[in-house]
Amino acid sequence: MYWMDPNWAAALKYSHMLLGFETVTYIDPDLPEKFFEYAINKNWKIFDAYKKATIETFGSDVEAAVYIDAREQINDHLWGHGYVAPDEYPDDNYVYHYHWGCE
Questions:
Q1: Which one, out of 17, 49, 66, 93, has a CA that is 20 to 30 A from the CA of 10?
Q2: d(CA 44, CA 42)
Q3: For residue 71, is it left (φ>0), alpha (ψ between -120 and 50) or beta?
Q4: Which of residues 7 and 55 earns the better pLDDT score?
Q5: Are 54 and 24 in contact (CB under 8 A)?
Q6: DSSP letter string, the chain
Q7: Of 46, 52, 53, 48, whose CA–CA distance to 83 is shortest?
Q8: For the sheet containing 94-101, what is the strand order?
Q9: 8-27 pLDDT, tens digit each
Q10: For residue 9, what pLDDT is reported?
Q11: Contact 93, 46 (CB under 8 A)
Q12: How far apart are CA 24 and CA 9, in angstroms?
């Protein structure tokens, strides 16, 4: 999904990806444990690891989200665990936004 918001674009100026939620939710220590299991031990892409971890951790009342600066960054891995896309026009104010229900 292609989306433009100067506030999110500014937040991504020096980073590749923001992982978060569209809804207010509670803290669950299972989320980082599951995320790092997939991202590090299984070498999954960050997006895939975060999506699977949120779906396994939360119920359908929670909507998770990822914001990236360039379309290719959807394939980013953690440093040292695979592909990381180069920065692309960090000041263009364009952001790709993905979200899903954790059901």
A1: 49
A2: 6
A3: alpha
A4: 55
A5: no
A6: -EEE-HHHHHHTTT-SEEEEESS-----THHHHHHHIIIIIS---HHHHHHHHHHHHS-TT-EEEEEESSGGGGG---TTSS--PPP--TTS-EEEEEEEE--
A7: 46
A8: 2-4, 94-101, 63-68, 17-21
A9: 666 676 677 889 898 898 88
A10: 60
A11: no
A12: 21
What distance in Å separates the CA atoms of residue 62 and residue 98, rounded to the nearest whole number? 14
Q: Can you tell me the distance from the alpha carbon of 7 to that of 45, in angstroms, rounded to the nearest whole number?
A: 25
Q: Which of 81, 85, 82, 88 is nearest to 73 (CA)?
A: 85
- Alpha-carbon Rg of the chain, whole angstroms? 14
The three-point CA angle 20-81-72 to 5° equals 60
pLDDT of the residue at 91 = 61
Contact present, 97 and 22 (Cβ < 8 Å): no
